[in-house]
Each structure stands twice: as structure tokens, then as C-alpha cells.
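Worked Example 4.2. Consider the chain below.
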Amino acid sequence: FIYGYSSALILFAQYMKENNISYNAKAVITTGDNLQKKERKLIESRFGCKVFDGYGCGGEGLNIAAQCEKGNYHINDELLIVEGDKNNEIIITSLNNYEMPLIRYKPSDLISISKNNCSCKRNLSIIDSLNGRADDVIKTRNGSKLILHFFTALFEYLEGVDQFQVIQKNSSPA
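Applying the procedure from the previous section yields the following C-alpha cells:
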């Protein structure tokens, strides 16, 4: 098994591709950064296995959810209470952090919690969508809001675009 930050594994997989290297692992587990479809496909092709992504708050020591073999992000219900507020911002209460309890902690990630069950039969809550930080939102001149993944979708399949940066100079509508 290979476990690491998504960004590091992406760079490693790119190096492997450029040098015609492959390795057969049982599974790759990613964490730390949002993993896009194009990047997942690259890692899977170089390591010859499925990628399982995890979601958490590393600085706070919280492993919030992990993907099952069906691709769903299951919340670690045994360790956390996870809620979404009216704006879909995640609210977390840790159930086993006795030294520094986190009660209704808001790390500013945007999520949607599913009401469905997974066919893997784990009976854990499922996160339908992870949309990054609430402050990763660009406000247009007419007041519309675009999340970071809008730009990812624009650039994901363009050849020659490996990284991009969006800078908003003025956040107030015109």
C-alpha cells in the first residue's frame, strides 16, 4: 500500500510517466489535497491499482472521511459528529480528543451530506460532495459566486496546463 499527500503522489506519478516507470501496488491512499479525476487516473495508471482518497483536517488531527471501494466518502461516525450548516459549511465535533476538545468546529470546508446508504454496507454517513474551503469562492461583478472547482473543470482537460492560480483583486460587486 502507498499512502501520501495527493500533491506529492501526483508529482511522483508524473515523474514515473515521464520515465516510463510503473509499479503494482495493492492500493494508493491519498490525503491532504483535493484529488481531481485527471490526477486520480494518472496515479492509478502508474501504480496499477485503485486510489482511495481521504478527507480530514490534518492540523487538527482529524480523519473525517475516507473512500470505500464504491467511491463514497464515509464519515468516521465513531470518532466525529459531522454536520452541515445552512451554507453547507462543515461543522465537526470530535468525540475522542480529550486533551483539546473540538466542539462544533468550522474549518470552512463546503460539504453536502447524503441521506442515502452505500452498497458497501458500512452503514456510515456519506459525504456527497466536498467543495473545498468556503473562502475558495470568487465573487463576480454581478454578485454570482464561483467555487474553485469551476476553474478546475475549465482547466482539467487542457493539454499543457499543469497548475493554475486564480487571483481576485476586488471582491466587491461593480
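The chain has three helices and eleven strands. The longest helix spans residues 6-18. Compare this with Example 4.1 before moving on.
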